[in-house]
Design brief:
alpha/beta, Double Stranded RNA Binding Domain
Length: about 525
């Protein structure tokens, strides 16, 4: 049995393939820095040839990260590998990750290649990548549906060609734990040079078995697990990193292996990813869901109060979630606020971000009697997800009633100019959005609108997340306020600013006033 597993985090690559997720370079670097604090072994920063944005993101992450390997995905094609290396060349610990499908169904319908052609390509491209860096990972896409004899041959030959890591993906989440564990054991037994590489696994969650399959693989000799924060990814997502880590951490008696993840940063990382992607974590999600450490049943409450282990197999503090609530109010100073941030796991915020969050906190404290941890999280995440403010909300006014047409007047500030527009709509939020679009000078399609109360009570913060589309792209905006209309307006302006920063003013025909 191995001493510890290695964590290959692909949130920035496979996680961004989640429908509706679109991260900019600043956000990707922010996430990479948090993953480094978390202690992951490898950060897959992107697919360099996929787009100019992906290339620049891989390049930016490569420059920033010092304590983890930075990888870029590439097809088994020379131009992909060239582009990957161009993006990775400044990384302290670079890895080229190249792949080609090996299953009969992919060979016949996607690649239109024979097994011999695929084998030849795999060997050649591993050797080609090896010219650039010593650390080369090879993935046999759809390995779990590949003819075993062919998979054994491919693995053996790419190792001879110089691969340092061989990844065995369950690309479509088809395998069962027993099957997948047996596949890894078979490779361990029948690939003559398997001891020269790390065996990695990359499992998808189409049947809800990604974590189970990954753990079965570890029990049978896999050394590296490829996963994402919150289980993000294509279709039903990937193996959830937090579930893998807390699974082996909580059941040391069974797995008998370690890791180098700082578990107290798990909750902080999960919240950051949720905030920046706009993908909310389901309340009953294992480890990081809002209800993961909540007890409503009277019987459960009595048991936990008597002895926590009756209904809690993990301590919330282990993942960085504080069980006790520190009450903060309008008389609290910056020092108390900053200490509370540290207790909550926000250890990498710059002084400028702390100051901005503190100012927002003081403003909120004038409206709420008690500030809870979740209020603070909402304020911090609102600052983390900032984009350049081309338009700034100055004022808004709403007139609405059950027998009147909703009307909104909105004033946006751009540089030193103020733009005021009014519009009607089907309700106050729609009217406000229409007024904003008139002020900006272009329209967007609202794809999704989500409102939730951050805490309980009539004075709770409202958190609004919107997704708008333009030019075939989706942009996420976020706003927080005790006034849900204000939170909605802030979210819409935030989404528009994001669209402008990524597409450009000329393309959007933005109001130049």
């Amino acid at each position: 049995m191995i001493e510890r597993i290695k964590i290959f985090d692909t949130t920035l690559r496979d996680g961004e393939q989640t429908p509706g997720v679109n991260l900019n370079i600043t956000e990707k670097v922010e996430i990479a820095k948090q993953l480094e604090i978390l202690g992951v072994d490898v950060i897959e920063a992107g697919f360099a040839i996929a787009s100019p944005g992906d290339f620049e993101a891989v390049k930016a992450v490569s420059k920033e990260i010092k304590n983890a390997t930075v990888a870029s995905l590439s097809r088994a094609v020379e131009k992909d590998i060239d582009r990957a290396w161009e993006a990775l060349r400044e990384a302290q610990n670079p890895r080229i990750h190249t792949f080609i499908a090996t299953s009969d169904i992919h060979l016949k319908y996607k690649l239109k290649m024979t097994e011999e052609e695929v084998l030849e390509r795999a060997i050649a491209m591993v050797k080609y990548a090896k010219k650039y860096c010593s650390d080369v990972e090879f993935s046999a896409e759809d390995a779990s549906r590949t003819r075993p004899e062919f998979l054994i041959k491919v693995v053996e030959e790419v190792i001879k060609a110089g691969a340092t890591v061989v990844n065995i993906p369950d690309t479509v989440g088809y395998a069962t734990p027993a099957e997948f564990g047996n596949l890894i054991r078979t490779l361990k037994e029948k690939v003559s040079n398997i001891d020269k590489v790390d065996i990695s696994v990359h499992c998808h969650n189409d049947l809800g078995l990604a974590v189970a399959n990954s753990l079965a693989a570890v029990l049978n000799g896999a050394v590296q697990v490829e996963c994402t924060i919150n289980g993000l990814g294509e279709r039903a997502g990937n193996t959830a990193m937090e579930e893998i880590i807390m699974g082996i951490d909580t059941r040391k008696d069974f797995y008998g292996i370690g890791h180098k993840i700082n578990t107290t940063q798990i909750y902080r990382t999960s919240k950051l990813i949720s905030s920046l992607t706009g993908i909310k974590v389901q309340p009953n999600k294992a480890i990081v869901g809002a209800n993961a450490f909540a007890h409503e049943s009277g019987i459960h409450q009595h048991g936990v109060l008597s002895e926590r282990s009756t209904y809690e197999i993990m301590r919330p503090e282990k993942i960085g979630l504080s069980q006790n609530r520190m009450v903060l109010g309008k008389l609290s100073g910056r020092h108390a606020f900053e200490e509370r941030l540290k207790e909550m796991g926000y250890t990498s915020l710059t002084p400028e971000k702390i100051q901005k969050a503190f100012e927002k906190f003081k403003s909120l404290a004038d409206k709420k009697k008690v500030i809870l941890d979740r209020d603070i999280e909402a304020l911090i995440e609102e600052k983390v997800s900032e984009v350049p403010e081309i338009f700034v909300l100055e004022t808004f006014q709403i007139t609405s009633g059950n027998k009147s047409v909703a009307t909104s007047t909105v004033t946006l500030k751009r540089s030193d100019n103020e733009i005021t527009e009014a519009a009607t709509g089907d309700g106050p939020v729609d009217a406000a959005f229409n007024a904003i679009e008139r002020a900006v000078g272009t329209s967007f399609t609202l794809e999704d609108y989500n409102l939730r109360a951050v805490t309980e009570g009539k004075d709770a913060l409202g958190e609004v997340t919107v997704r708008v589309s333009k030019e075939g792209k989706i942009f996420t905006g976020r706003g927080v306020s005790t006034d849900i209309i204000e939170a909605s307006v802030k979210a819409y302006v935030n989404a528009i600013n994001r669209a402008i920063s990524e597409i450009g003013e000329d393309a959007l025909k933005i109001n130049a006033q």
